[in-house]
Structure formats: C-alpha cells, structure tokens
Design a protein that fits this description.
Layout lengths: L7 H9 L3 H14 L2 H11 L5 H8 L3 H20 L1
Length: 83
C-alpha cells in the first residue's frame, strides 16, 4: 500500500506501526537509496544542522540550488520510506 508522503495522518499511522529499531534501519536504507548529491545536502542540514548558506558554501553551490537539492532529497527519502 502506498502512502501520500504529504498526508501527516498517514505518516503518523505508519510511524506508529514501527518500533525504534526498524525505523532506524529504514531511515538508513532511505538515506543510502539517495543519490550522493542529495544525501550530502540532507545529512549536512538535518544531521549536522548546518544552515543553507553554510551547506552552499561547503559544496560550492548557490543557495537556490542547495534549497532545491534539499527539497528533492527530503521528498525522495519520504517516498522511499512510505512506499
């Protein structure tokens, strides 16, 4: 069964059906499924908590390109997890 990755109720129900260990494994799988350019931006923002400007400078990207990659990375990761 596929979920709408933007429907918070569906996401909450999906999360409630998974224990912490399985969520951790699925998150790792989702991150590993991302192309490296998307994975790098996502990890820098959501795990290292760098700002968009800091990520852009580190990766040699423009701020708009960084925002675009981050949005796409989050979308792909969410789709992977909820597929």
């Amino acid at each position: 069964m596929n979920f709408d990755p933007y429907n918070e109720d569906e996401v909450d129900r999906w999360l409630a059906r998974h224990d912490t260990d399985s969520l951790r494994r699925e998150l790792i799988d989702a991150l590993e499924s991302l192309p490296p350019d998307y994975r790098d931006v996502l990890l820098l923002r959501d795990f290292e908590e760098l700002t968009i400007g800091e990520i852009a400078a580190r990766l040699g990207l423009s701020v708009p390109a960084t925002k675009s990659r981050l949005h796409r990375a989050r979308t792909l990761a969410r789709e992977y997890l909820l597929a």
